[in-house]
Design brief:
The chain is of the alpha+beta class. It has helices at 5-16, 22-33, 75-83, 97-102, 140-147, 150-183, 200-209, 226-235, 257-262, 279-282, 298-310; strands at residues 41-48, 53-61, 70-71, 88-91, 111-120, 123-133, 244-248, 263-264, 276-277, 287-291, 312-313, 322-323. The protein folds into two domains: 5-163, 2-Layer Sandwich (Beta-Lactamase), CATH 3.30.450; 211-323, P-loop containing nucleotide triphosphate hydrolases (Rossmann fold), CATH 3.40.50. It is elongated.
């Protein structure tokens, strides 16, 4: 079938750019592309160079699909895939060692796969993958045709990633706002009663420690105003524009301490249907006030001490550690 490449490029570009929802856009492209290529499933992957693989970001199929969310081939095969400049066809009986070795990872047996590398300014950012049932379904001419629309798909992938980031930031802001409203944080007045007389020494120490990026231990009986002093330190510090987050350690059940302080990853335990940020993360760029810290179980105190020493936290169920930027 002869295809007008200009019309093909125009139609695919209009469809892939027709929606901010990349899955919706792919569905519209699928409908058109199936008139020219014999495939049933289309997947969009974004490269995760630091992880040595590609992450599934969107798909369009004419049936059910159980595609892998992340594909991580052996290091040498990942390097080979990243070097590919033009669309290429994968078949199960291919004798190329790279293709033969990665065949089980991409469920190649009984299928034909056409891969379109997506690049922006010669930098590989992802792959478009078309899968057809049966072997030897794609032709070199069809691979060449898909090369015509590699650039629009690459731009759509970049936009999808940017949109994903914006949505994540929006959700974080909504979550922060909901949390802060729920907490009904109290704010200290500019002046503390007694600040010029009986509490003069205390206020002098407040002025000394406020500019420092350090942990401050406040000692005093219940009701003597430790939270007020903590808030005053916060307001006088370079972190005053950030949040002032507090936690009464004595009011949290022992089995929930880590979750409250450090948060958890999705699936970390039964009922963890979504990730949760702990108080350390919520206080990022601001100040975290831990009241009644002496009531923490000893094991929790040890974990907390490690965080204070390293300035790094890890969510419950998480593997990575990231910096804590609260005071």
């Amino acid at each position: 079938m002869n295809v007008n490449k200009e019309e093909f490029f125009k139609e695919v570009t209009l469809r892939i750019c027709s929606s901010l929802n990349i899955n919706t856009a792919l569905e519209r492209v699928l409908e058109y592309l199936q008139k020219h290529l014999p495939f049933t499933q289309m997947f969009l992957y974004i490269t995760e160079t630091n992880l040595g693989g590609s992450r599934h970001i969107a798909q369009a199929t004419d049936g059910t699909c159980t595609d892998k969310k992340f594909v991580s081939p052996p290091k040498e095969h990942w390097a080979w895939a990243r070097e590919q400049q033009k669309p290429f066809i994968l078949t199960h009986d291919d004798q190329d060692k790279n293709i033969h070795d990665v065949a089980p990872l991409i469920e190649l047996k009984g299928n034909s796969i056409l891969v379109v590398p997506l690049r922006i300014d010669d930098e590989l950012i992802g792959f478009l993958v078309l899968r057809a049932k049966g072997e030897n379904r794609f032709t070199p001419g069809q691979a060449e045709l898909m090369g015509v629309v590699a650039k629009p798909f690459a731009i759509a992938l970049v936009n999808a990633k940017a949109h994903e980031t914006v949505v994540q930031h929006r959700d974080t802001l909504i979550d922060n706002n909901r949390f802060l409203n729920k907490e009904s944080l109290s704010q200290a007045n500019d002046d503390i009663i007694g600040g010029s007389s009986g509490l003069r020494n205390v206020m002098e120490m407040v002025q000394m420690v406020a500019p420092l990026n350090t942990t401050v231990l406040l000692l005093g009986e219940t009701g003597t105003g430790k939270e007020v002093i903590a808030n005053t330190i916060h307001l006088a510090s370079p972190r005053s524009e950030g949040p002032f987050i507090k936690l009464n350690c004595g009011a949290i059940p022992e089995n929930l301490i880590d979750d409250e302080l450090f948060g958890h990853e999705k699936g970390a335990f039964t009922g963890a249907v979504a990730e949760k940020r702990g108080r350390f993360e919520r206080a990022s760029g601001g100040t975290l006030f831990l009241d009644e810290i002496g009531e923490l179980p000893l094991q929790s105190q040890v974990r907390l001490l490690r965080v204070l020493q390293t300035r790094k936290i890890s969510r419950v169920g998480g593997n990575g550690r990231f910096p804590s930027t609260c005071g």
